[in-house]
Specification:
The structure is a single chain. The protein has 5 helices and 16 strands. It has about 300 residues and is mostly beta strands. It has 2 domains: about 30 residues, no CATH class; about 260 residues, Immunoglobulin-like (Sandwich). Strands 8, 11, 12, 14 and 15 form a 5-stranded antiparallel beta sheet that branches. A 4-stranded mixed beta sheet has the order 13-7-6-16, with no helix packed on it. Strands 4-3-5 form a 3-stranded mixed beta sheet, sandwiched between helices.
Amino acid sequence: MKYLLLSLITILTVTACDIIEPPYKKKIEVTPRDTSDTLSPLRNVLLEKFTGAVCTPCPPANDVAKEIHEIYPLVSIISYHAGKLAQPEPSQGYVYDFITNTGIELGVAFFKATAPENIITPMGVIDRIGFDTLSKVRVGHKIWLTEIPKRFPISSPVAIRIYPWYDPSTRTLTVSGQVHFLENGFKDYNVTLALVEDSIIKPQKQPDGSKIVDYLHKNVFRSNIPNNAWGTPVSTTDQPKGSQVTFTRNLQFAPDSDWVPKNLKVVGYVYRNFNTPTVSREVLQSTSKKVSIVP
């Protein structure tokens, strides 16, 4: 569903059976963008957002991300907890540590931060556009809904399919899949498989400084598969149009892991690791899929 802002004049003229409540938004039907089962060049956008449990401006940004998912279900979202406002504050009741080394490494790289604590939250990166230019790669949450649709008309040169499943007996997550080349491709394409978890109930500081103890944290980054920040090469050689590369990746959960398998999904994305003449990490295509559990 997509929202259309209505002017106050329009609201005054609607009939009694069509009352519009503030903030004066009305749902309208949009053409589905289901590319999950076809080799479509339609682009599924990746939003990587940086947040923190003690970050007071972060709940409004989380609300925007939720709205984006409702309007554009195929937009992939990853939430990294990083920066000063992601540090636990046990004395204030913020005990749980969401921070990962990968989130820190990506945040420092994206925002050119001189230290991990200088990663700014809330902030987002859309398809890693402007990686070499700080002013472009860093996107505030108030314009995410404006900027993300601008990526849809840009056709993607690749398609990616992923099939994740978890075996409780071995505590191992396996992800198989393929990268399909819809145009001629290059050996500097990387594929990353990010494990994220929904429905983590932990405290979150609110804009007024208060605390919601049972806040629902969504799209929380847990680990890459394998556990490195920048993924792995799709291929060691350039690929012609029409070819495909298959892959299988595994991740074994630590014995003390509190990850809940039924709440996990994998976000897979292909980006170009291009270093000349300028540094680029543009995401070419992304997808996400819920983890299946082996009976």
